[in-house]
Amino acid sequence: MNWTWLHKFASPPHAYRLAGRLAPWVGWPAFALIVVGLYGGFVLAPPDYQQGEGFRILYVHAPSAWMSMFVYATMAVAAAIGLVWRIKLAHAVAAASAPIGAWFTFAALATGSLWGKPMWGTWWVWDARLTSELILLFLYLGYMALRASIDDRDRADRASAVLAVVGVVNLPVIHYSVFWWNTLHQGATISKIGKPSITGDMLWPLLTMFLAFTLYYGAVMLVRLRAEILRRERDATWLREELRL
Amino acid sequence: MTRTPASAMLLMYRRDLVLAFRHWDQIAQPVVFFAMVTTLFPLAISPELGQLRELAGGILWVAALLAALLGLEFLFRADHADGTLEQMMISGQPLALLAIAKGAAHWTACGLPLVLVSPLLAVSLGVPGAALCTVVVSLALGTGILSALGAIGAALTLGLRRGSVLLSLLVLPLAMPALIFGARAIDMAIRGEEAGGPLLLLAAMLVLAMTLAPLAIAAALRISAE
Question: ipTM of this predicted complex?
């Protein structure tokens, strides 16, 4: 099989241009979907029979929690690709993703805490999902700290990639051990495939928000990827020509 | 002369133990640290044994975890500094197996002493005699898991500035599942319940860590030693 297309795809100049061209095509739909999803969630959806208006934070909380795991998985896959095939662009994708994932994790924790105060009567409980989300935040912070403390770029890339892969192998273990340890969090709302325990009026804005957040991650990642490529290739001739310096 | 991997592992293990026992202070320090951290809790909480007994599982585990972290930093440092690590890599022996031997030696020198003094500290926290066996088994399994996971962190942070803080930051989140089941096993034994379940889960984690961690350690060592 001919793999030249892959090498072309992974070359920094091509990736830089492609990311620049794709970013608005992902970013604007993300923006539009966030507006639609938030309007649907905050205005159109009926109040919950038990939690009243308070449940509406779900529309930010659940997609953030989903993204915190999705971004980690993406980061680990990119890191593994970079490690195995030595593709520098994959490492750049992982490096660009980590802070976004950490912020999504933080957002999930913060909105969960705001939600917990009126519903459970406390800002923080040592509940299984909250705790495993917190451990996930620590994993992100460890990844970024390791990357930041290695000066040599190549070593930083590969060492943090090993850590990301180790982390992703550990995530299920952490998740289930914390789950057996303690649980108070309400059951998952839409993972019950077929018959979700939520009405259609409430569901469609939520699904819209999931899609919107995923696209938003895509857009921010592309922008950050461009910045990452600029940083890595700052001495390259193609970049001078590209920027007409 | 070529050696089989098994004999190379045995040599590595013996060499590391000899080196460790020549620097006996490195073996003694984590044990003293373990005893000291355990002493902090009665001072900070209450000298009342009934109350301490409730917390004993958690106190012993947290103290042992921190004490075991102390020794990790030195796991590969000397070998990295004097070039032994490069020799290990070009020796033709599988690096992952040598990493297992080094991890095992580290556990014998750093983890095992903690396990051996743990009954004494447990009794001082009011743990009943019947639960001491669980304390020993859970800490033996737990320090083993920590040696395996910690070796990954030690290999990744090799030769970095402020490596020790970073090492704890990397290793502690990964070690949390072990903490959960280890402390729970002790807790259950203190209440007179059957603690087999959490201990078996700990053993499963140890097997998983011993199987996969050497590969990650070897990869990390290759990256760090370049």
Answer: 0.87
